[in-house]
Amino acid sequence: MKKLAVLFLCIILISACQPKKEEKEKESSLPKQPEVIQVLSTDLLILMAKIDIIPSTNMALEEKKKNDQKAAQKEKEISDVSDDRLAEKDRKKHDEEKIKVKISSFTLDNSTLYELLKKENIKEINELENEDLPFEIDEWWHKIKKEVNKIHETWNEVQAKLTSVSVSEDLTEKFESDLISLTKSIEEHSVLDSLVYANNLTKYMSDFKMYYKSPTNNTVEKMKYSVRKAVLLCHLNRFDEAIQTLDSIMEDLNKMSQAIQKENKDTFFKIKYAIEDLKKSIEDKDLKIINIKAPILINNLNEIKTIKD
Fold first, then answer.
1. Could you tell me if 21 and 146 are in contact, meaning their C-beta atoms sit under 8 angstroms apart?
2. What is the mean pLDDT of residues 39-54?
3. Is the pLDDT of residue 104 over 80?
4. Which of 106, 248, 284, 308 could form a disulfide with 56 if both were Cys (CB 3.0 to 4.6 A apart)?
5. Cβ count near 168 (within 10 Å)
6. Dist. CA 48–CA 42, nearest whole Å
7. What is the per-residue pLDDT for 18?
């Protein structure tokens, strides 16, 4: 009986260990992720940042217009006053009124996802708010249209790569459909719709990465997609759906709990409390606090983006 009990226990232990062994074998047999897939993933985040910064750019343009009008009025007032009669303090004040207006002065209060996207530490995103103002906002939209055209080209390259790993046709069709919807939203200058479709594309990119040995953890990538989705839902006044999205993030975190705590217990609890804090701000329907709490969660998730499940 003792021998049978030991044998039974061994069978249970072997059976419990088998899935992890199979998962490791499956992962090792996956092909290396093509570079173009990461290029497209990064380009989508950059595009989202460029779209999201449009309202801030608009406000900066309005501020510049006001400053220019004040400066023009001042020029008119002093045009009849000779330089030697114009007081030094008036001259200095006039110069100050010509100070360059910066987009960065408006991003904190007027962006939806930009503060989250800055946490990705992508140079092109972080430098956006310091770019020179366009002459008019249509110039910015024109640049974005060029960017989305490039994304169509890169997507064509990715499609060709995906044929070798038998990605489901349904998944590629969903990507294509949302890419077309994104393009139309950009044509219509719809910021929020464009952000929703672009964010959807980042989720599909994580799905594609499942077919390769990816340098990043796809579960974490999907969690970050879900954080952005929750914030977008809040800006669409769909707070209940945003809370459900946060609940799904917490479920994913709990599934990874053992792996994360093995690496760093503090990191697990930082993420856990960041989710709870963000959920509370969503329950309160406080967009300002949501825009503060969401970047913290993204930053914490980036600490585990290379962890193995």
1. no
2. 97
3. yes
4. 106
5. 11
6. 10
7. 43
Residue of 207, 198, 208 lying closest to 157 (CA atoms): 208
Between helix 218-235 and helix 239-255 the angle, nearest 10°, is 160
SS3 call for 178: helix
Q: d(Cα 14, Cα 6) in Å, to the nearest integer?
A: 12
Quote the tokens at residue 210.
């499942």
What tokens were used for 300? 């914490």
Cα distances (Å, whole numbers) of residue 63 to 50, 59, 115, 129: 20, 6, 21, 15
Q: Which two tokens stand for residue 119?
A: 């946490």
Distance from C-alpha of 112 to C-alpha of 53, rounded to nearest angstrom: 8
Pairwise CA distance, residues 52 & 256, whole Å: 31
CA separation for the pair 210, 217 (Å, rounded): 9
Closest CA to 125 of 300, 304, 297, 295: 295
CA distance 288 to 51: 20
pLDDT-based confidence at residue 19 (cuts at 50, 70, 90): very low
Average pLDDT over the chain, rounded to whole? 86
pLDDT at 170 over 60: yes
pTM score of the predicted model: 0.84
Q: Are 132 and 126 in contact (CB under 8 A)?
A: no
User: Structural domains in the chain?
Assistant: 216-309 (1.20.120.290)
Side-chain half-sphere CA neighbours of 52 within 13 A:
32
List the helix and strand counts (H, then E) for the chain.
Answer: 15, 0
The pLDDT, as a whole number, for residue 166 is 87
Task: Indicate if the pLDDT at residue 16 is higher than 50.
Answer: no
Q: d(Cα 207, Cα 218) in Å, to the nearest integer?
A: 8
Contact 64, 101 (CB under 8 A): yes
